[in-house]
């Protein structure tokens, strides 16, 4: 009887130990998620403030209508787009459409970095062990899937706000003047229902999945190169800025034509669309403008990507480190 009681006590202690370890692991995991959410939010805010004016010019160049033979385009280039925008709308015109991403930047980057963090935990062979570059590529791709569904409606509102002045001058085009992100949302839902907010989802996912895979892979690769090994915990802020900037450049270098197609689809008219889908937009752009048509706005995009992503990754790393 005593032996049975002893075995029972030991069994209870064992179950309690397993339960305690599971609870501690769960709390640590939730703590990591909270830290990634907070750090991702700060990083996203830094990225938006630094990069939005460049993004406005990129979208204006991407979405201006193709001119008839002999006609000059609305904007001759990025500098001309900046000059015309500031002249017509003031400096605030460069930040047009910022309300939509600002409202969701916390969610967007929180999801991006927290999903990446959870995938890192799943792929890590033992606690604290650095991941390989190929594993970071997988984590980036997985995070890209998650953020793609959030990015699509947000960017649709932003693009339609940013592009309306460029679209207004197209032959036969009548641009709707939106009062802000919510006004865009109301127009879209009234014309196409809630599904209309997800117009361009396919090219958005086609951008986010490989783009984030490349970005996080390059970020980790450059950090390891600068650190001289897998342990990158001692890198200074200058190294993080370099790694983040080059990682951002790799994102756009890899997927830019997809982003052009996404912008064309998202600013297209719902009732009388120019394009039947992503493939049609790609083909028509290639036929009318050649390969260079798929790289409209590439200069502003690259000019934005380096400082904006340098700010994002630095803010993320500093905030994440300060949280322990």
Characterization of this structure:
- There is one protein chain.
- This protein is mostly helical.
- The protein has one domain: Mitochondrial carrier domain (Mitochondrial carrier fold).
- Helices cover 74% and strands 0% of the residues.
- It has helices at 2-63, 78-89, 99-123, 133-167, 181-192, 201-227, 237-267, 278-289, 298-322.
- Helix 7 crosses helix 8 (278-289).
- The longest helix has 62 residues, at 2-63.
- The termini are far apart.
- It holds the Pfam family Mito_carr.
- It is a multi-pass membrane protein.
- Keywords: Membrane, Mitochondrion, Repeat, Transmembrane, Transmembrane helix, Transport.
CATH class: Mainly Alpha
* End-to-end separation: 50 Å
State the helix count: 9
- The tally of domains stands at 1
Fraction in helix: over 70%
Largest sheet: none
Mean pLDDT: 83
CATH architecture: Alpha/alpha barrel
**What structural class do you assign from the helix and strand content?**
mainly alpha
Order of helices and strands: HHHHHHHHH
Shape: globular
CATH superfamily: Mitochondrial carrier domain
CATH topology: Mitochondrial carrier fold
Measured on Cα atoms, how large is the radius of gyration? 24 Å
How would you name the oligomeric state of the polypeptide chains in this document? single chain
